[in-house]
């Protein structure tokens, strides 16, 4: 009996040592889950452990993993209960995670380290607050912005005039049949098309643009579906990433695009002498955000909070922007100086909404930093919540087979050739079998 108790004691002690060892190891590990190609690996991410050691005196190792879509990231946490410490979801996923209590508060007590999260533009903080599930939730306690932008139209001036893309009506223009690439993202497309569908009501003050985008109704979904179905012959393809490359090759005339992708395409196209343009149509668009959060099952919330703070430092924001080509939410004087480049940008934009009253005439790239007049026409995209199934059904009906008459004839022609080849092959096989049988019969005789 004593030996049994001794054995159980040894097992318990060993188990405790293993658990303590795992806990100690985990307290020195920061698990970051981010979009692919969405951070400066060498100059920002890899230098975090040394910075963290300077601030806290503690060691930390970064385990960095990437995801390709918001939903796969959410599934890892919601279903798999993965213990990632920091994640970078988009606004509608942040909204959903807040509603479902899947986020932990960010501890902004950094001791002697400044609170760099205060560098986030008030404009962004206000937009984030629109994600709150109720008036008692302060979203900035749970999510800090990272990058942001708009959705608009990337177009090739060789085929499309600036006047033709002033309105979202351009996607209905028969001139562009089979020449438009559309984002395969139903929330993004709905949020811009609903503004177009109700443009007259918005102009008359009968409906608010933010309400249109935030509150989905069967009538609104149906009106957007009708518009997209009318545009179907113009859609050459539904894409998430390859549309910008098709534009740089001159294979598409127009691409409904995110501003960061648009700027990438503009830069790439210039290397081959192609001058692409980007515009947010007059009816408005959505303004989107990605932000840093600490998910419910995080194990190292201290390092996670410090990491989020570290990402809000001006110098790190600049390094990340230069590396990935998207726009940081940080609005410090250093960022404004970086953005204000008269040599690269002849015209000026009003960025008072972002940098403050001294930014009414800044030589900034309007793709990255839209003028205040453009932002005034944009609304925040939201989670579809209980209307998600309705939206998915609408999207599936819209996409369908996406076959134009010309495509149908091509496919029928290919199928005809295949049918002839199959029949010919079958006849040859039958003929060869007949010859073999004849030879066998002759041999038997």
Task: Describe the overall structure.
It is a single chain. The protein has helices at residues 2-27, 48-56, 70-78, 91-99, 122-129, 186-197, 199-203, 209-214, 218-230, 243-248, 259-270, 301-311, 314-324, 333-339, 352-355, 372-375, 388-399, 405-444; strands at 29-35, 61-67, 86-87, 103-104, 143-155, 180-183, 235-239, 254-258, 277-279, 285-295, 327-328, 378-380. Strands 4, 5, 6, 7, 8, 9, 10, 11 and 12 form a nine-stranded mixed beta sheet that branches. The chain has two domains: 26-146 and 292-323, Periplasmic binding protein-like II (D-Maltodextrin-Binding Protein, domain 2), CATH 3.40.190; 148-289 and 345-399, Periplasmic binding protein-like II (D-Maltodextrin-Binding Protein, domain 2), CATH 3.40.190. Helix content is 46%, strand content 14%. Helix 6 packs across helix 9 (218-230) and helix 9 runs parallel beside helix 17 (388-399). It has 445 residues and is of the alpha/beta class. Helix 2 (48-56) links the parallel strand 1 (29-35) and strand 2 (61-67).
Element layout with pairings:
Elements: H1 2-27, E1 29-35, H2 48-56, E2 61-67, H3 70-78, E3 86-87, H4 91-99, E4 103-104, H5 122-129, E5 143-155, E6 180-183, H6 186-197, H7 199-203, H8 209-214, H9 218-230, E7 235-239, H10 243-248, E8 254-258, H11 259-270, E9 277-279, E10 285-295, H12 301-311, H13 314-324, E11 327-328, H14 333-339, H15 352-355, H16 372-375, E12 378-380, H17 388-399, H18 405-444
Parallel strand pairs: 1-2, 1-3, 6-7, 6-8, 10-12
Antiparallel strand pairs: 4-10, 5-8, 5-9, 5-10, 5-11
Helix pairs in contact: 6-9, 9-17
């Amino acid at each position: 009996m004593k030996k049994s108790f001794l054995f159980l004691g040894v097992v318990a002690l060993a188990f405790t040592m293993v658990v303590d060892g795992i806990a100690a190891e985990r307290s020195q590990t920061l698990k970051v889950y981010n979009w692919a190609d969405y951070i400066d690996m060498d100059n920002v991410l890899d230098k975090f452990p040394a910075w963290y050691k300077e601030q806290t005196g503690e060691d930390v190792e970064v385990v960095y993993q990437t995801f390709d879509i918001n939903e796969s990231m959410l599934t890892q946490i919601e279903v798999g209960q993965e213990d990632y410490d920091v994640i970078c979801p988009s606004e509608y996923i942040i909204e959903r995670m807040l509603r479902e209590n899947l986020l932990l508060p960010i501890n902004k007590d950094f001791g002697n380290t400044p609170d760099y999260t205060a560098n986030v533009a008030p404009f962004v903080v206000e937009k984030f607050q629109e994600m709150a599930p109720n008036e008692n939730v302060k979203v900035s306690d749970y999510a800090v912005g990272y990058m942001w932008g708009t959705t608009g139209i990337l177009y090739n001036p060789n085929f499309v005039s600036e006047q033709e893309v002033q309105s979202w009506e351009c996607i209905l223009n028969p001139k562009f049949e089979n020449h438009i690439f559309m984002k395969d993202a139903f929330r993004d497309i709905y949020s811009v098309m609903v503004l177009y569908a109700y443009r007259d009501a918005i102009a008359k003050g009968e409906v608010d643009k933010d309400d249109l985008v935030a509150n989905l109704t069967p009538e609104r979904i149906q009106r957007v579906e009708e518009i997209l179905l009318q545009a179907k012959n113009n859609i050459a393809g539904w894409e998430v990433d390859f549309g910008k490359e098709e534009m740089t090759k001159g294979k598409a005339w127009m691409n409904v695009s995110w501003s960061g992708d648009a700027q990438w395409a503009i830069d790439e196209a210039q290397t081959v002498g192609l001058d692409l343009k980007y515009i947010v149509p007059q009816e408005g668009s959505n303004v989107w955000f990605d932000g840093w959060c600490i998910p419910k099952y995080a194990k190292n919330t201290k390092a996670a909070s410090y990491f989020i703070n570290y990402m809000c430092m001006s110098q790190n924001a600049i390094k990340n922007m230069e590396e990935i080509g998207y726009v940081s939410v940080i609005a410090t004087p250093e960022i404004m100086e970086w953005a204000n480049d008269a040599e690269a940008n002849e015209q000026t934009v009003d960025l008072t909404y972002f940098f403050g009253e001294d930014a009414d005439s800044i030589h900034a790239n309007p793709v990255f930093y839209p003028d205040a007049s453009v932002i005034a026409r944009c609304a925040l995209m939201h989670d579809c919540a209980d209307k998600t199934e309705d939206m998915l059904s609408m999207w599936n009906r819209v996409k369908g087979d996406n076959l134009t008459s010309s495509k149908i004839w091509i496919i029928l022609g290919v199928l005809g050739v295949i049918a002839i080849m199959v029949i010919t092959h079958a006849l040859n096989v039958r003929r060869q079998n007949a010859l073999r049988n004849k030879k066998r019969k002759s041999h038997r005789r």
